[in-house]
Design goal:
The complex is a heterodimer.
Chain A: H1 18-42
Chain B: H1 3-23, H2 30-35, H3 42-53, H4 56-68, H5 79-89, H6 91-98, H7 103-110, H8 113-146, H9 150-197, H10 205-214, H11 233-250, H12 252-259, H13 264-298, H14 307-314, H15 319-342, H16 346-370, H17 378-386, H18 391-426, H19 432-457, H20 462-488, H21 494-514, H22 520-541
Helix pairs in contact in B: 1-9, 1-18, 3-9, 3-13, 4-13, 4-18, 5-11, 5-13, 7-8, 8-9, 8-18, 8-19, 8-20, 8-21, 9-13, 9-18, 9-19, 10-13, 11-12, 11-20, 11-22, 12-18, 14-16, 15-16, 18-19, 20-21, 20-22, 21-22
Classes of the chains: A mainly alpha, B mainly alpha.
């Protein structure tokens, strides 16, 4: 069992640093919203 | 329901409870029972966080929203990835390094006992109401579909939850949720495939999407800003970000999940997994609702989706006249949909809208006559009428356990807060064994409370469910403001933040009474009010900023 008083931090499994991971998540969100916007416009009545 | 469906339903229930009991074994210290010994991998925490939100209401109500209001509700989740990124960078390392069992324990380290007590009381009131509703809402719908008495349904669900949550603590809750999430995803995919496959042979998947679009159901993104519009791009990106920051950063039912992580990195990954997966998942659920709408353009829907109300209507004198009006509108709408499929011209679109209006009007008359709203039965009606034998039992079983999953997380966190933030403060010398015993007792208490609440007030409170959901937005904003100050504004102390929290709450009440802005904005108002007022009080009155400064993320 991990000692609860010794909580280690660790590098992310993808990309080099956590801030890079955070930026990639926000870019992903922007991409998803853009995709949804195009979808909305493509099938609008 | 056939014998096969009942067998599948009970087999799934027995499997899930047994699995939870098995995975929760060995939870006999406070650290194991409340934090799973801090051994959880990211995927278990991530799926558990997702399962807690994928309640029975998600199946019942979100699909109905896709059916009736279209897909714009997905915008509510645009704030979630933003909140997850902020919390991964701030709250996760702070809580881990503070070595706390609850988020509110940290407030005493940072401020003082009165601030901790205030926020603890807010959580117990808000989440306590939520636990009652989380049990009652699905129990009402499932009791009608399964043909069980409502109170029996609530008692069965509540007792099963108490059984594995009391025995295995957070570990049982988390691992049961992992299984739950896998089966939820599979059954949703199955429902979507079946809905599309059962369309007439001349209607392709693309035709179905085109018809749903023409009917206005694929309104995923609305860019126009409107304070009073509940779901648009801006309320999602700003208002919902505040709500999710508060929910995942200050609500113990969520904080406790990522505190079980074996490292800060694992806890971060569990939140970031949700940041990536949640929006597409909600899109998928709403899309199923839109496809069920198209399905019922070609397969005649019942006058009302509520099974009991439908039977009552059959004995009414107005029934045949309603049926004939309904059939006429249905035929008109179907012809218009086929015309849209072929050409999508303005005339066929106008005809479609006119026939839809006629159909809605007859449906509203039927609902009024029966006195039973049927929104929550749209997806359940589709499942029980059109899915194959065996699959019906599985989907209903999943909805049943989705409700259990949400309740288990809630009563587990309520018990944890009761023990850590109340019992251990009243009895500081409590041994580990006494703490575990008190935690189990707390779980039974909150489980019994949820059962009693739903049994006593459950029936006939459709509007109360909506009200209780909105009550969260009354409390979350001030809680977020308090934690924001705790993390980032070192010079503000306990007394200023305590007064600021009360003032923030009053500000929300004032805004709700004097304006019509959508409730998501209450989170912004509450948080900003607490931060501004507490900072002003600190500067003006010059209170001593008692308490440790915030640990660095």
């Amino acid at each position: 069992m991990t000692d609860p008083h010794n909580i280690p931090d660790e590098p992310p499994p993808l990309l080099r640093t956590w801030p890079q991971v955070y930026v990639s998540i926000l870019v992903y969100l922007a991409g998803v919203i853009t995709l949804f916007y195009v979808f909305t416009k493509a099938f609008a009545p | 329901m056939t014998a096969i469906d009942w067998a599948v339903l009970f087999a799934w229930l027995i499997f899930l409870v047994s699995y939870g009991l098995w995975r929760g074994r060995g939870s006999d210290t406070a650290n194991q029972f409340l934090l799973a010994g801090k051994t959880m991998p990211w995927y278990a925490m991530g799926l558990s966080i997702m399962a807690t939100q994928a309640t029975a209401i998600t199946f019942i109500s979100t699909t109905a929203q896709g059916y009736s209001d279209g897909m714009r509700f997905v915008q509510f989740y645009f704030g979630l990835p933003i909140a997850m990124v902020i919390l991964s960078a701030t709250a996760v390392p702070i809580f881990h390094r503070a070595k706390v069992y609850t988020a509110y324990e940290y407030l005493e380290q940072r401020f003082d006992s009165k601030t901790r007590s205030l926020v603890t009381a807010i959580f117990l009131i808000e989440r306590g109401l939520g636990a009652g509703v989380a049990l009652a809402a699905p129990a009402i719908a499932l009791s009608v579909i399964l043909g069980w008495p409502f109170r029996l349904t609530a008692v069965v669900m509540g007792t099963l939850v108490i059984l594995y949550t009391t025995t295995g603590g957070i570990k049982a809750v988390t691992w049961a949720d992992v299984q739950q999430m896998a089966v939820i995803t599979a059954s949703l995919l199955l429902a979507a495939i079946i809905a599309v496959n059962m369309l007439p042979s001349d209607i392709s998947f693309l035709d179905a999407v085109r018809i749903a679009g023409a009917a206005g159901k694929l309104n995923v993104v609305e860019t126009q800003f409107n304070w009073n519009d509940r779901y648009n791009l801006w309320s999602g990106l700003i208002g919902a970000s505040f709500l999710f920051l508060a929910y995942f950063g200050t609500d113990q039912s969520q904080v406790q999940r990522y505190l079980t992580g074996r490292s800060i990195g694992q806890s971060r990954l569990s939140l970031l997994f949700n940041a990536v997966a949640k929006v597409p998942m909600q899109f998928g659920i709403l899309f199923i609702g839109a496809m069920v709408f198209v399905f019922f353009i070609f397969i005649r829907p019942p006058l009302t989706f509520h099974p009991r109300a439908e039977k009552q209507l059959e004995s009414r004198a107005e029934y045949s006249q309603l049926q004939s009006r309904y059939n006429e509108a249905f035929e008109r709408r179907q012809s218009a949909a086929r015309a849209i499929k072929s050409g999508h011209d303005a005339a066929s679109l106008a005809e479609f809208r006119s026939s839809q209006k006629q159909l809605d009007s007859v449906h509203a008359d039927a609902v009024k006559l029966s006195g039973e709203p049927d929104t929550n039965y749209i997806f359940l009606s589709f499942v029980t009428r059109y899915l194959p034998r065996g699959v019906i039992g599985l989907v209903l079983g999943v909805i049943f356990t989705a409700a259990m999953s949400a309740i288990s997380g809630e009563i587990n966190s309520l018990a944890t807060v009761t023990v850590i933030d109340i019992y251990r403060r009243l009895k500081p010398g409590a041994t580990d064994r006494q703490t575990v015993f008190a935690s189990r007792l707390g779980t039974v208490f909150w489980g019994a409370y949820a059962i009693a609440f739903s049994a006593l007030f459950g029936q006939g409170f459709g509007t109360l469910i909506e009200a209780v959901n909105q009550v969260g937005s009354f409390f979350y904003g001030p809680m977020l403001g308090v934690f924001f100050i705790a993390f980032f504004v070192k010079r503000v102390g306990g007394t200023a933040v305590f007064v600021g929290a009360i003032a923030g709450e009053l500000a929300i009440i004032a805004v709700s009474r004097t304006t019509h802005i959508a409730y998501l904005w209450y989170n912004v108002v509450g948080a900003v009010a607490v931060i501004a007022i507490a900072t002003a009080i600190q500067r003006g009155a010059g209170f001593s900023p008692r308490g440790a400064s915030a640990p660095q993320p």
